[in-house]
Design a protein that fits this description.
Elements: H1 4-15, H2 17-22, E1 27-34, H3 45-63, E2 66-73, H4 78-90, E3 95-98, H5 102-115, E4 118-121, E5 138-140, H6 145-158, E6 163-169, H7 172-187, E7 191-198, H8 207-215, E8 220-224, H9 227-239, E9 247-250, H10 255-261, H11 263-266, E10 270-273, H12 281-290, H13 301-320, H14 322-327, H15 329-338, E11 341-343, E12 347-351, E13 357-358, E14 361-366, E15 379-385, H16 387-390
Parallel strand pairs: 1-2, 1-3, 3-4, 4-5, 6-7, 6-8, 8-9
Antiparallel strand pairs: 10-14, 11-12, 12-13, 14-15
Helix pairs in contact: 1-4, 3-13, 4-5, 6-7, 13-15
């Protein structure tokens, strides 16, 4: 059963449908579905909605396209997320965007396929979205567990971190991230000395797990979670003195998390993103356009992915015609795959047959306070993984859409 606040959000959306129905021209309706109030709020949340609206403003307005944007909080619950998506689609929404929390994303992925609607995933990391559960209706845009494990995990092993202990959120994302990272650790000659899973999202005290990690003798603590959970893990690890004997690998961490943690605490941490505002002239241009709309929460790769994926969706829909795009979500995704991608956040790229968006990934290090000019000047680039190496090869994914 949907929670009361979800029903209220859905009622607000449904109340706009009569106005949609009176519109003379076909109207594309995009629903941003993410965590608006919980541990992943800053990872997607309201800033993700702002980024979607930015794409609509930049492209649809200039083309005279009618586009409506709605949003809802899935509360990191698969049944809630699937229920909202189903209600939206039955009310005329054409595409769902973001959908962090892999368990929610996989549930919504199935609804999109059933209803022949478009899913533009940015916040979930599960490689199943381009593997065993790949769909002709889904594009996986921003990152996944393979990308994170290859970049951050591989770099830590090369730097001498050859023994690991994992603290892992006990759902699809955390489990797959641990699995993929362990793969790169062992491939690099390292060992996994232990792991502890914890209930998500109901855990705030990580002390017992951290004590076990420290007593394992491992050189690296692999933190397989995100958002406030990662911040709490790192803070508590420092309080217990764990950082005197272990290095921390924050397997999914954003510039916004670095800011929340503070450079005094975060300095030296390695993290992987596929977008950073100060990466190049184009990323700086995007940040300049959007900064006044979200001055306190500069976009991370997930939120930038909301902008970029919607921009490409609008280009495809405009190319085939709005009425045709509304009638067939699979056809829109096929058109998106056929068109090269290009935007200020990720540059030029493409979408593979399995739905995986391809672009480079970047290994960053959190700056020391003395290196920062203040504000959001938080990261320095350490290494780049080329686009054709950053993501899992299609031959390893077992996606039914990939022709042998």
């Amino acid at each position: 059963m949907l929670a009361r606040r979800t029903l209220l959000a859905a009622t607000t959306t449904a109340a706009t449908i009569p106005r949609f129905a009176r519109a003379q021209a076909p109207t594309l309706r995009i629903g941003v579905l993410n965590d608006q109030s919980g541990p992943y709020r800053d990872d997607g949340g309201p800033t993700g909605v702002v980024c979607v609206r930015q794409a609509v403003q930049e492209y649809a307005a200039s083309k005279g396209m009618a586009v409506e944007v709605v949003f809802a909080d899935h509360q990191n619950k698969p049944d809630v997320g699937a229920g909202i998506a189903r209600q939206w689609f039955d009310s005329g929404v054409d595409a769902v965007v973001d959908v962090p929390t892999s368990s929610v994303a996989l549930a919504v992925n199935s609804v999109c396929r059933e209803k022949n609607k478009v899913m533009l995933n940015n916040g979930a990391a599960s490689t199943d979205l381009t593997g065993a559960q790949c769909s002709p209706n889904t594009v996986h845009w921003t990152y996944d567990t393979y990308m994170l494990a290859r970049s951050t995990g591989g770099a830590m092993v090369k730097a001498g971190g050859d023994s690991w202990y994992f603290v892992t959120a006990n759902y699809v994302f955390g489990q797959q991230l641990q699995r993929d990272t362990a793969r790169f650790v062992t491939a690099g000659g390292g060992k996994v000395l232990g792991a502890r899973e914890y209930p998500f999202p109901d855990t705030t005290d990580f002390s017992g797990m951290l004590v076990q990690a420290q007593s394992s003798g491992a050189k690296v603590l692999g933190v397989c979670n995100s958002g406030t959970d990662t911040i709490n893990c790192i803070k508590q690890a420092q309080e217990f003195g764990l950082t005197r004997t272990m290095k921390i690998a924050a397997m999914l961490f954003y510039a916004s998390n670095v800011l929340a943690l503070g450079l005094e605490t975060a300095q030296g941490l390695l993290l992987t993103e596929s977008y950073y505002w100060d990466l190049n002239d184009r990323t700086r241009a995007f940040q300049a356009r959007i900064k006044d709309k979200t001055p306190n929460q500069w976009p991370n790769m997930v939120q930038a992915g909301c902008y970029a994926s919607v921009l490409h969706y609008l280009k495809a829909a405009g190319d085939m015609g709005i009425a045709a795009a509304k009638a067939d979500g699979r056809a829109v995704v096929a058109r998106m795959k056929a068109m090269p991608t290009d935007d200020d956040c990720f540059g030029a790229g493409r979408i593979r047959e399995d739905g995986r968006k391809i672009h480079p990934s970047y290994l960053f290090q959190a700056k020391a306070p003395s290196e920062s000019k203040g504000g959001w000047d938080l990261l320095k680039l350490v290494a780049t993984t080329p686009a054709d190496e950053a993501f899992r090869p299609m031959s390893e994914g077992a996606c039914a859409l990939v022709k042998a």
